[in-house]
Amino acid sequence: MISSFPIYRVEPKDRYGTNTSVDAEGRFYKYWCNHPELGHCLFKAASPDGFTPRERRWDWSEKVAAELGKLFGLPIARTELAIGYAQELGGYIEGTLSIDYTPKNGQVMSCRRFLSIVDPLYEVESLDGLDAYNVENVLHYLQRHSVGLPLNWYPPLGIENGADVMVGYLLFDALISATDRHDENLELAILEEGYFLCPTFDHGDSLGVKLLAESRSTGNLEEPKLVESCWWQNLTVEGRVEAVEISNIEAFNIAAELRPIAAIIWLKMLAQIKTDDIHAIFEQLPAERIDKVTNRFAIDLLDFNRQNLLSRSEQLVIEQTSIDVQEELGR
Question: With 80 as the cut, is the pLDDT of residue 234 above it?
Answer without folding.
Answer: no
